[in-house]
Amino acid sequence: MTSRISHRISSIAESATLAVDAKAKALKAAGRPVIGFGAGEPDFPTPGYIVEAAIAACSEPKWHRYTPAGGLPELKEAIATKTLRDSGYAISGGQVLVTNGGKQALYNAFATLLDPGDEVILPAPYWTTYPESIRLAGGVPVEIMTDETTGYRATVEQLEAARTPRTKVLVFVSPSNPTGAVYSPVEVQAIGEWALAKGIWVVTDEIYEHLVYGDAKFSSMPVLVPGLAETCIIINGVAKTYAMTGWRVGWMIAPADVIKASTNLQSHATSNVANVSQIAALAAVSGDLSAVDEMKVAFDRRRHLITGLLDAIPGISCPLPEGAFYVYPSVRDLVGRSLRGATIESSAHLAGLILDEVEVACVPGEAFGTPGYLRLSYATSDNDITEGVGRMAALLAEAG
């Protein structure tokens, strides 16, 4: 019997992070005291000046109509200005495509670059959407493994070992979701020079560019390797920086021919991003970074708090992240031990036990290509971090 669902779609895995978040929110709605560390979503409201711009836009009839599929021209120019300000990368508005969040920018990028069978080098741990977007576009993700011993950073030697005649793209992410790893400028430049020398495109996700801590420094690859500009696509958006996850505005920056092709795709897939959201994004990227800096102070405090609490639990090893708002502790020493009448079979099994037994939601490493870990977002309150990790510690103290 022919399947009702196409093979292409039925082979896609559900977003594990959104699934965990949905389950946590459903339990909360049912009155359960669930603490959610699942979704990467700032707990701060969108800054007021951004909301006010959106409210004003609602009353403007011109924003009630279709606008260009590739984005409002004034927003594209503002993104170009913001990019120069924040990373030192000089581009024009014609190199920008405004998308319905970063996920659509990623899919547009892969769909525009990849033909069936093209390979994409994907360092793991990786964000859950990357391999699915690659497969949807007909590509083949080629995973390379990193772990805490190298700070979850891939080396040029690893990338070269994974390269084949079918390699067309490298996915590069710094700061990283899920690990919080940040590559040094020297490492970013070395990887960019390797990609340029080998004729490999780079799709680099810069959405956490402003969330770096301590001595870590964000570096934009085409700034350090200018020759890469013709074979590099940058993914970014307002979601994480400005606490705007629900507004759904992202963008891709690429050579003009790639932007034209991706805009043609978007014209048939979704047309323009909602105009009110685009006006809100215009206010965000045109404003200063004071609200961002305030949120960053809180995130910095929370990363120390959650890392210390987790690292104190026997069987858990938690490196201090340098960017984003995630910790990625190893729980491999807990696998195989007994807990409340069950043997912990995997990190996925452990995450399920933690949710069922103490109502704390976190995402298992299986979702990110590396079993034996958990991802917890610390984009939540200090009280929730203390209470949630405290519940985990009390439960795991019973592991034998």
What does this structure look like?
This protein has 400 residues and is α/β, with parallel strands linked by helices. The protein is built from 14 helices and 14 strands. It has helices spanning 7-10, 16-29, 48-58, 73-87, 101-113, 129-136, 156-162, 185-198, 221-224, 256-269, 275-286, 290-311, 347-358, 382-396; strands spanning 35-36, 96-99, 119-124, 140-145, 167-173, 201-205, 232-237, 250-253, 326-327, 338-339, 342-343, 360-361, 363-364, 374-377. A seven-stranded mixed beta sheet has the order 2-8-7-6-5-3-4, sandwiched between helices. The protein starts with 6 loop residues before the first helix and ends with a helix. The mean pLDDT is 95.
Question: How would you concisely characterize the structure shown here?
Answer:
This protein has helices spanning 7-10, 16-29, 48-58, 73-87, 101-113, 129-136, 156-162, 185-198, 221-224, 256-269, 275-286, 290-311, 347-358, 382-396; strands spanning 35-36, 96-99, 119-124, 140-145, 167-173, 201-205, 232-237, 250-253, 326-327, 338-339, 342-343, 360-361, 363-364, 374-377.
